[in-house]
Amino acid sequence: MKIYNSLTRQKEEFKSITPGEVKMYVCGPTVYNYFHIGNGRTFIVFDTIRRYLEYKGYKVEFIQNFTDIDDKMIKKANEEGTTVADIGDRYINEYYKDADGLNIKRASTNPRATEYIEDIIEFVSGLIEKGYAYEVDGDVYFRTKKFNGYGKLIKQSLEDLQSGARINVDERKEDPMDFALWKSQKPGEPAWESPWGLGRPGWHIECSCMAKKLLGETIDIHAGGMDLAFPHHENEIAQSEALTGKPFANYWMHSAYLNVNNQKMSKSLNNFLTARDALEKYDADIIRFLMLSAHYRVQLNFSDDLLESAKASVERLYNAVSNLENLISEVKKEKMDEQEEEYLKSLDKYREKYIAKMDDDFNTADAITAIFDLIKDINTNVSIESSKELCEKALELIRELGNPLGILQKSTKGSLEEEIERLIEERQQARKDRNFALADKIRDDLKARNIVLEDTPQGVRWKKIN
Ligand code: AMP
Ligand code: ZN
């Protein structure tokens, strides 16, 4: 299996530190609001990657943090006249509702930054002891000049970065690229005791610290949206590797933006759609399908048309599911015969294609094509003449390939009854319209599916016959 590693800018064969296990850390949301489907793209992408690793047999330790202390959190708490902790509690709760709604698997752990303050203080102290950090007036900064590899993720030297950072030079910092590990308390801000006085952690340090604490000094995969590569991930690498002297993560993965009119979907541009609003109109399968219909490293331009086309595609996929579910309860033959066994084996080629595509840096777009090819084959070759066993196996295969993508797991069973009720109503209307040909056709079609209609004084009833 190959993964594109942002650190080396190439696809590399994936090899985990411990065979059969993957330690993965994904930067999570700042919990001061509902998340939008741009954030959702990143969460869905890494959920899919985690699911696929599990499909391949890995045990995945999946950590996604909640940033529950920063400027935006403090601002929101002040606006609402409440505490930062209260805002955190509320939007973590809302996060779970929407993430569950999007069929995103729960992380092994969702650490909250504020629960790791002691570990963060210990981390920062360690950096000071080693000469990688210094304190000024209660703030602690990372000494970028001291860390040799600074800029290795974005492939820029410290000098290039310094020249770009001339504006807004803070006189108290030794170098414009030095960044805050600990911030002294400003009036009205929540703060914790530390060797440098009351204050709170910087943003970057929380991820370095929680990843180390929960997964160890070197992890397999560290991931997040493209915007996090610099400075967030660059700074994480500097802090972690300065402290431990070991590589922080073996593979760095970054997912591309979800755009609107070629601009990044973001709160500040006010061009966002919350996951909650999207889920009111569209099923999770549709939203996931849309996100996964492009490769995760390619920007995706969101539009209503794209959503509608995802909806139509998902309907086509579920028609195949529904068809098989109906056949399972309608076909007469129980077991597969030899010919059917052969046929079932022939479907393996779609699984192989799917795996080959997913193994190639998680090419979900082409993996989806393999699923479409599979259902096309099934639609042409599995019918009312087939055995129940074959129908079941065919459906199992569709669900197996849908599972890593987090789609196609639902049953359409409930809707079979609805469909029959709808057809009965259509038939009644046809009769009223004296369109007896249509009315008879509806009855005959249902009969072919072993559903017979009875006209009773109480109205039309239906039953299944075997
Ligand atoms: P935030 O809460 O802003 O820190 O974002 C949480 C995650 O969503 C981070 O991994 C971001 O990189 C990612 N993200 C934010 N906006 C977008 C977008 N428009 N498209 C894809 N990912 C995004
Ligand atoms: Zn992070």
User: Helices and strands: which structural class?
Assistant: alpha/beta
Sheet with most strands: strand arrangement? 4-3-9-10
What value does the Rg take, in angstroms?
Answer: 28 Å
Quote the average pLDDT: 95
CATH class descriptor name of the largest domain: Alpha Beta
CATH topology value of the largest domain: Rossmann fold
Number of strands: 15
Number of domains: 3
Shape field: elongated
Bound molecules: adenosine monophosphate, zinc ion
Main sheet summary: 4 strands, parallel
Helix content: 40-55%
Please identify, by name, the CATH architecture of the largest domain: 3-Layer(aba) Sandwich
According to CATH, the homologous superfamily of the largest domain is HUPs
Strand content: 15-25%
Distance between the termini: 48 Å
Description:
This protein has 16 helices and 15 strands. It has 466 residues and is α/β, with parallel strands linked by helices. It has three domains: 254 residues, HUPs (Rossmann fold), CATH 3.40.50; 102 residues, Up-down Bundle (Four Helix Bundle (Hemerythrin (Met), subunit A)); 50 residues, no CATH class. The strands form five sheets. A four-stranded parallel beta sheet has the order 4-3-9-10, sandwiched between helices. Strand 1 and strand 2 form a beta hairpin. The radius of gyration is 28 Å and the shape is elongated. The two termini are 48 Å apart. The relative contact order is 0.11. The model has no long low-confidence stretch (mean pLDDT 95). The structure holds adenosine monophosphate and zinc ion (ZN). The site of adenosine monophosphate has 16 residues, from helix 1 and strand 9.
